[in-house]
Specification:
Strand content: over 45%
Structural class: alpha+beta
Radius of gyration: 32 Å
Order of helices and strands: HEEHEEEEEEHH
Shape: rod-shaped
Number of helices: 4
Largest sheet: 6 strands, antiparallel
Helix content: 25-40%
C-alpha cells in the first residue's frame, strides 16, 4: 500500500504526469485525453394544431328501397408534436511512451448523436380521422380540402401510432462516450511497437 502511494506521488507531479518517474516504476506508456467540447442540447416539445375531418359512414335507402352507404364529414382538429434532443462530443487522446516521450498512437473524435419525436394525438375515433384543411368550422369554403387518399391517411396513421418518448441528452452523450472508449481501446490493443 505505502509503495503504491509513493509511486503515485512520483508519477503525478503537481497534477501532471512525470514520464521519467512513471518509467522508473515500470509504467511503459501513459494515455491522456483532451475533451475540447461537450454539448447537450435539450429540445422543446412543439405543439401544432392541425385541421382534419372525422369520417361518418351511415346508411340510407334509395328510391328502390336498397340500402346505400353515405359519408358525412365533420370538421375537427388534432394535435401534432415534434421535438429533438442532441449531444456532441469533440475529444482526442494520445498514448505516450515513458521511455522517450514519443507518441505511440493517437486519435481524435468529433461525434454527434440525436433522437427525434414526431407524433399526433386525437381524442376521438382515430380510425375515422382524415387529414385535410378547412377555413371555417361552421361553413363550407372553396378552400376546404379533404385528403381522403391512402397516402395521406397512412402518414397520419403513422403519426398517431408513433412513439411518444425521447432519449435524454445524458443517454445520447453516454452512447458517444462508449463509442470513444471502444475506439481508444481498439487503437491501444492494435498498437504494436514493432511496427514503429
Amino acid at each position: 500500500q505505502s509503495v503504491m502511494n509513493a509511486d503515485l506521488i512520483l508519477v503525478f507531479d503537481k497534477g501532471k504526469i512525470n514520464l521519467q518517474a512513471a518509467n522508473l516504476v515500470g509504467i511503459k506508456a501513459v494515455i491522456s485525453g483532451n475533451i475540447a467540447e461537450i454539448v447537450k442540447t435539450e429540445g422543446k416539445l412543439n405543439k401544432t394544431m392541425r385541421k382534419g375531418y372525422l369520417k361518418e359512414v351511415y346508411k340510407v335507402k334509395d328510391e328502390s328501397g336498397q340500402e346505400v352507404e353515405k359519408i358525412k364529414w365533420h370538421k375537427t382538429e388534432y394535435a401534432e408534436f415534434d421535438m429533438e434532443n442532441s449531444a456532441r462530443l469533440n475529444m482526442s487522446f494520445k498514448m505516450v511512451s515513458t521511455a522517450d516521450g514519443a507518441i505511440c498512437t493517437s486519435d481524435s473524435y468529433n461525434l454527434s448523436n440525436s433522437d427525434k419525436l414526431h407524433y399526433a394525438k386525437f381524442e376521438g375515433e382515430k380510425k375515422n380521422l382524415v387529414p385535410g384543411y378547412w377555413k371555417n368550422k361552421d361553413s363550407s369554403s372553396p378552400e376546404d380540402v379533404i385528403k381522403n387518399n391512402p397516402g395521406d391517411i397512412n402518414k397520419l396513421k403513422q403519426l398517431l401510432n408513433a412513439k411518444q418518448t425521447i432519449r435524454t441528452t445524458t443517454s445520447l452523450l453516454s452512447e458517444l462516450m462508449d463509442h470513444v472508449a471502444e475506439g481508444i481501446t481498439d487503437k491501444v490493443d492494435k498498437y504494436n511497437p514493432e511496427n514503429k
